[in-house]
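Help wanted!
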Amino acid sequence: MTIKQTPKILSIIFLLIFAFTIPLWLGSYWTQTVTMGMVIGITAMSFILLTGYCGVVSFAQMSFYAMAAYVFALTIKDYHWPTYISIPLAILGAVILSAIFGAIAIRSKGIYFLMMTLALSQLFSGLMLDWQSVTHGYSGFTGVARPSIFGFSLMKTNPRYYTTLVALIICYLILLRIVSSPFGLSLQGMQDNTRRMKALGFNTDLRRFVAILISGFFAGIGGILGIFSSASVSPATGDLSANVMILMAALIGGIWRLEGGILGGIIVIFLINFTKQFTIRYWLIIGVIFILIMIFLPNGLLGLNFSKISSKIKSGFNKNRQRT
Amino acid sequence: MDKIIIQFLNGLTFGGLLFLISSGFTLLFGVMQVVNMAHGMFYIVGAYIGLTVQKQTGNWFLAIIVGSITVGIIAFLVEKLIRFVKSDLTQALLTLGIAVAIRDLCLIIWGGLPQIMKEPSFTQFPIKIFGFTYPGYRLFVLVLSIFIGVLMWFLLKSTQYGRIIRAGTDNRKMVSALGINIDRTYTTVFVIAGLLTGLSGAVGGTYIGFGPGTDFTILTYALVVVIMGGLGSIPGAALGAVIVGLVDSFGRTYVPQLTNFLMMGSLVIVLLFRPTGLLGRKE
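Answered by r_m:
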């Protein structure tokens, strides 16, 4: 450990202490809010893996989330399977859905990818609405039983908070490892210049596809933690408003860094829950804030330029890349 | 057999409506490369304004016209707003923000109950085709959509203004250098797309019911239609609309729970053989 690194390590320790003591000084309502924020944070990180590192904007993250939640709810509530089977099954469901979406959307880039994933996720949400014999239609699943982990029942707010926090930290570390691995670097290389990466012998489509699978996996983990937290899932869980929430989380936090997703997720859920106390029509306010952020703060709080993404996709030979 | 023919007609007329809905979307994308996420919002505002005017005056034509013009004005404002951001992705996300805000505003103004507009009197008679009676309004929608499709095709292909618009699609700077105010042209295209979508909203609001959530459904239909038909292509939108209309109509009759699955399946099959859609240009 060098002297230069000390402040960084100290701030990480401080942040961890802060995160682990939140339930002590926040009430159960706001602890629950932070829990939900962290769940959205994990999903937003899976979004950022695709947006910031792969250069495609995916509108399907909440579909993967909803898929995991649906599989979990179905196996627990209708089939009464044990938790240790239904959790892997739920994540598998999310990965399979991401494989299907990825296989369809992989050939399109930029704005086309956005449209494709949006159409697919909306069709998925419609399927969940119409397929009443399995998904229970409009109301979906409510009151899904939460399991116990290491003897702590997730029915209570605090064990749920700590489970989510630990999961968040693990997901963050794994994702950090992935984006700094050779695989992650090759993704960033493809984002800058797909043609050159192809010429260097990389199978670019396959790598992008694997990235979509990984993002589906983490969105699935988000879905399971989400159903622990809210105990319900419905077609609205995966619809366009939900995807706008993920998008907004990533935009507020900063699209180029994984931490941006966590920060943005917590801020967005705080914002929604705060506005909810005053008016039931909170989307009006959220939407206006969203527009203002797009115009005046395109860099996000952790600060880099979002509009670079599309210019990067367009310009084939952009050499000067800036990343903090 | 009777059922099949009726469903075929239903699919065809619904396809006509879908073409009306997606023509504005595909026009905007083809000309300006803007993905208008507020498209469903345009539709539903057209329908709600139409409904209000119809309730006040009882005149269907007035309702259609006022609905269409209102959405045209909103489109004008949206175009001014998205000038603030540069890239196509941020523009798309900005329109999404606008859509999310205004859909909630609609919910405040018009409430959450599903609504439908009354049919105009001149279509309120059943028409006999092949020995079946079929509602006249649906056939009217089909005729109207064919008329508008042909009109758009003619305007884009054969008029000076259409040539400017098409030239602007390919090379904006060059058209601008030739002394044409391309910015004003783009504003005009945006307003035309708004007028068309408002019209489709009021016409569609008479055809199928609408309420909160319809905007996203309509956006999905428009997306599927133009992706299937080929982005930015008007004949492609027509073809896609007919296919989606037929899939929707037969799906809702025979496998009502899995219609969206069928839709996804047909989208996959089309993209498997034609990655840029049925009549799409190469990317």
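OP: Thanks! One thing I noticed: The two ends of chain B are 42 Å apart (CA to CA).
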